[in-house]
Predict the structure.
Amino acid sequence: MPRAPISSATAWRPAFPGPSLAPSGWIFDSDGGQASTPPTTPHHGAARGLRREGYSRPVYPFPPSPDATRASSTHHPALRSRSRRQLWLTIHLYLGLAAGLVFVIAGVTGTAIAFGEDLDAWLNADLMTVVAPTEGLRARRPVDELFEAARSTMPADASPMYLRLPREPERAVSLSYGTTSAAFPEDMDHFEVFVDPYTGQVIGQRVQNIAGAPFSGPLMGLLVELHYNLLIGPLGAVLVGIVAAFLMVSLVTGLI
């Protein structure tokens, strides 16, 4: 028996035959007629189903598959393993960035230190450069005489540390010494005296390092301190060692 036509205001015809569910949730029969509307309760009738006109079988939304439910659970072993690996990769990333910053500092300062004598002589030519005679190093005064010349300018309580005899004929001889620091009695302040190796005359002297004042010395001294302890003393030296050990571990674990 033919069915009464549905008004054009609510009619909707699917592009293929058979029952279908329109985007708005309406249920239609095979010829495009409206069969029923979904209830206003949540889940569009998931609890009681939708009955198409002329059918006794209710139409339910498709439930999720058990496999999909298990896979989406955070308690699934595969997801737990993936989360732990993601956490470790994040930790590895930020620790690597922090350690990398330390090694950038160590690498740049170490490169400068490798050419330290040349850079220091270029920056302090008035103290470290002399006029060499034609005989070259053979005209250099005896070491004892040079030492006494430098010693004469040192304070009475100063402790000589080392005498540097450069191989270049145009370089001055230098004597480093230390005195007890006024600010830190357990530490020492360091100075350097420069002597012309051909005349035995003192050219001048400079501060190498004042205890507790890392920026008091020349640039090369600052770079050395930055390279070895990041300008924070013994604690910095320990930190650089720890970061070096971490880098070795990071290089291995980063390949896994």
Notes: The longest strand covers residues 173-180.
